[in-house]
Amino acid sequence: MSQRNILITGASSGIGAEIARQLVQKGDFPLLVARDEAKLQQLRQDLGCGAAFTCDVTCTEEVNRLADCIYQRYGGVDVLINNAGYGKFGGSMEVSTTDYVGMIETNYLGAVRMTRALLPQLLQRNGKIINIASIAGLTGIPNLAAYCASKFALIGYSESLQLEFAPRIQVGVLCPGPVQTPFFQGEDPASCFPPLILGRLLDTETVARHAVRLMERPRIKIIPAGMRWAMHLRHFSPQLYRWVLKRMYDSFAQKRPVQLKQEERIP
Q1: Which pLDDT score, from 0 to 100, does residue 227 have?
Q2: C-alpha angle 224-162-148 in degrees, rounded to nearest 5
Q3: Closest CA to 248 of 206, 201, 193
Q4: Does residue 169 sit within a domain?
């Protein structure tokens, strides 16, 4: 297989950085994109391969400049991995409107901006798009309403892209369960998830490995296997699924008093 140019957003740490490491081992050329220039340069140095670009995916102008730069330097992108994103744990009335907007801007519209900017290159090279979503994009989860909304949007967008552009472009979506990363902005995982979920956290190496494999046969993929069974239950017996989920969270996190954000208090 010839070396592929693979652009990874959110590449400075966590899943994105691990995807880059695994791609280099396969002989690919990673184009590392994130906001933290120091971390990007350190990663590129550690990899001994690839190129690093600072870019904020919430800024259309920066994304468009990045796409032009990559085309001029490298001739285009073969695979786009939209991985940039963040989460904010809290009840639907506890998370601020600013954070709702921020998650939509980064997790969903960030992928939209990058896809639109690189689509001509991907079409030219019969490329692939891999969007890193979440199990939270397939089912509502207590205390993750804002995050769920952003990932539901990403999955719907991905399915639409696949229908519009296949077979010239193939689109895959990875939907992992909770991952052992400092993803939820300073939150302790033990304070975010019930024990049943906490004992099944995925590590970044596993998630990255599935993302890399997904490039060979893009589709919607749920990991781990236990989460796939949960989604089957949701599909075939939604009332039972909701009852189980409600019971699990009621015994853990739903009994705390709701704290409305000051700017959103009802008069």
Answers
A1: 83
A2: 45
A3: 193
A4: yes
Number of domains in the chain: 1
State whether the Cα torsion 133-134-137-138 is positive or negative. positive
Q: What is the pLDDT of residues 174-203, one digit of tens each?
A: 999 888 766 554 566 566 666 666 667 899
What is the secondary structure of 204-228 as a DSSP string? HHHHHHHHHHHTTS-SEEEESHHHH
Domain housing 151: 5-226
Of 43-47, 80-84, 116-120, 181-185, the range with the lowest mean pLDDT is: 181-185
147 a catalytic residue: yes
For residue 2, what are the contacts with CB-CB under 8 A and spacing of at least 6? Answer: none
What would the mean pLDDT of 80-99 be, rounded to a whole number?
93
**Of the candidates 150, 128, 198, 183, which has an alpha carbon nearest to the alpha carbon of residue 16?**
183
Decide if 239 is inside a domain.
no
Mean pLDDT, residues 109-137: 98
List 147, 157, 241, 249, catalytic entry: 147
| CATH number of the CATH domain containing 116 | 3.40.50.720
Q: Is residue 147 one of the residues assigned to a domain?
A: yes
Rounded Cα distance between 231 and 173, Å, is 15
Phi, psi values for residue 49, rounded to 5°: -165, 155
Residue 140 lies in a domain: yes
> Token digits for 117?
């900017």
